[in-house]
DNA sequence: ACATTAAGTGATT
DNA sequence: AATCACTTAATGT
């Protein structure tokens, strides 16, 4: 039983599954690889079979900000709009963990919209989900204080990694959240005192999931 | 032993 | 919440 059927079989009809198998290219990507860079032209869309992808926004100065994570069964809404509009990517996608995915040529994704209603539903649903996540990210940035943002970030990261031991540094976190390392160190200390996490060198254990 | 990197802390804005 | 300046601790060569 292949992974496509496992992750998408309940969504797509058999004919669509077999078409995906014919034209899709399986790819394995190791953790920390940049999959899509800002400014890239997108010529195929990915279906995530396994692992997690971190989607980032970046400003002119090169400062980053994490928008959301994609998990198995997801697809990237940015590629959807790019494939349609021939536009460049406005986000960067980095493999958070080792990832397996299927790349589908963009011509097919448009063709299938008319051909398979399950595909249409999937695309629309994906858009809806991404929109929700984006609004959630906006809320988080606009309305939550740094300490709440941080804890949410840690929980999200633990979730997508399926591991409550996060291998990361205060510096990396500060870059993801677009703040300074000192602030993160202090807030992490506070979270530790509250019993929500445990701090180690180069790793953090999330206690309260 | 020395250099580098990660993390902790007080003070200031 | 950001920045500076400094310390301490862990790790690499």
Structure description:
The protein folds into two domains: 3-142, Jelly Rolls; 145-206, Orthogonal Bundle (Arc Repressor Mutant, subunit A). Helices cover 47% and strands 24% of the residues. The protein has eight helices and ten strands. It has a four-stranded antiparallel beta sheet. A three-stranded antiparallel beta sheet has the order 1-7-3. A hairpin with a 2-residue loop joins β9 (197-200) and β10. The two termini are 32 Å apart. The relative contact order is 0.14.
In short:
The protein is of the alpha+beta class and 209 residues long. It has helices spanning 3-8, 14-23, 77-85, 106-115, 117-143, 146-161, 170-176, 181-193, and strands at 25-29, 34-36, 44-50, 53-58, 64-70, 92-95, 99-105, 165-167, 197-200, 203-206. The protein contains eight helices and ten strands.
């Amino acid at each position: 039983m292949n992974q496509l059927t496992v992750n998408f079989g309940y969504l797509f009809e058999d004919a669509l599954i077999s078409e995906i198998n014919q034209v899709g290219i399986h790819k394995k990507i190791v953790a920390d690889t940049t999959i899509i860079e800002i400014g890239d032209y997108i010529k195929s869309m990915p279906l995530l079979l396994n692992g997690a992808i971190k989607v980032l926004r970046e400003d002119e100065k090169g400062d980053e900000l994490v928008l959301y994570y994609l998990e198995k069964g997801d697809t990237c809404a940015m590629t959807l709009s790019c494939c349609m509009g021939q536009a460049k990517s406005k986000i960067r996608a980095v493999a958070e963990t080792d990832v397996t995915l299927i790349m589908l040529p963009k011509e097919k994704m448009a063709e299938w919209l008319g051909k398979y209603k399950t595909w249409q539903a999937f695309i629309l649903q994906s858009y809806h989900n991404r929109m929700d996540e984006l609004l959630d990210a906006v809320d988080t940035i606009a309305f939550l204080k740094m300490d709440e943002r941080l804890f949410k970030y840690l929980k999200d990261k633990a979730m997508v990694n399926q591991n409550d031991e996060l291998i990361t540094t205060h510096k990396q976190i500060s870059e993801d959240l677009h703040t300074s390392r000192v602030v993160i160190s202090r807030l992490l200390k506070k979270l530790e005192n509250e019993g929500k996490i445990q701090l180690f060198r180069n790793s953090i254990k999330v206690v309260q999931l």
